[in-house]
Structures are given as structure tokens and as C-alpha cells.
Amino acid sequence: MNAELLRALQHQVEDVHLPSSFMTWWRLFSFDEKTGIVKKVVAQPNLIPYQGADVLARVLAGDVTLKAASILFEYQNTTGAIAVPTPTRDEGIDYYLTTIPLTPNRDYLRVALSAPVAFSSSDSAKYEGNQASFFAISSGIKGIHNEPFSSAAHSKVFGVGLVSTPDPDQHTQDKLFSRSYDGFDPVPKEDGYQVGAQYVIRFR
Q: Which residues contact 77 (CB under 8 A, 6 or more apart)?
């Protein structure tokens, strides 16, 4: 995707406003691959697991290998309803590595951020509204556990996660910073469309 189309896509997603009380949240959306026009956007607060606190502490201590670098798109191939899990804070990346394969036709995409992390700030005295935004677009035809990702397979994205990738070539080394399901309507992978995700964390 060219830079101009990517900027237009990000602008459309940003136009979906959420209450100022939200500190962290996800937006999940479907868009036309050729025009970049967004078809559907759903938004929801998230869960930061205990592993996410470890990531943040180590980044603040200077470990740049643990900066957030990829978004996970969790999906299932089905024409029916999806039994969405209820995450807990003690679940880290092991959920994606060992629990997901236990459910038939379920998998996840691991996608590098599509654009540099976006920063915004307001009143330097209050730090009101300072935030960082992470953005990625689904890519590939199968997930980490080799399940197909396509419209023909009836793939539906129903969950997202933000991870650090200390070794970009070894998904087993990832560290989970954020994860979300609750409130999302599954977003189907339709022919000619991709699924995008944005994660925002706001500082006060």
C-alpha cells in the first residue's frame, strides 16, 4: 500500500471518536484494498496483561528490543458464530502459541506495523491527551499455525493483540502487551478487502 493511501486510511479511522475517559483501546476495521475506503469500524477498550507490564518496565529500562512492533489478528474459519474467549491478565504470548491450536480452524496472523508509531500531545503542563497509536493491516494467506486466511475459507477476525518482537524471525519469542475481544463484532476477510487494526494508548 502506498504512503498516500495509508495516510488516508489512518485519517478515516481516526474520525471514529471514543469517549475521553478511555485510556487504551482498539479499532478494528475492514477496507477496500484498491481505494482504501473503510467499510466497517468497531472499537473497544482492551486488557493489558501482566506480561505487558514487564514489557513496559524493560523498555523504560532501555531494552529497545522489546518495543511494540507487530499486531496479531486472531481469526477463525467458520460460517457460524464464534465462541470468543475471555482473556485474563496472567495469559501472555503462550495463549497464542499453545491455546489457539486447541480450537479447530482457529489461528492468528502476526503482522509488522504498517507505519511508524504515531505520537500526539497537547498541553505540556497537563499531558492531557498525549497518546501513541499503532497501526497494521492484515497480510498473508495463512496464519502462524497454518490455517488459511481468506474469504473462501470464511475467515473472521475476532480478536487483536499488540506484541514486542525481540526476534522478528521467531514468533515464539514475542511478548504480549495488549489484547482485546469484548465488544467486537467479528470482521470477515472479504474478497477485495483487508482487515486493519489500530491500538491507542493515552497518557495523563
A: 105, 106, 147, 148, 153, 154, 155, 156
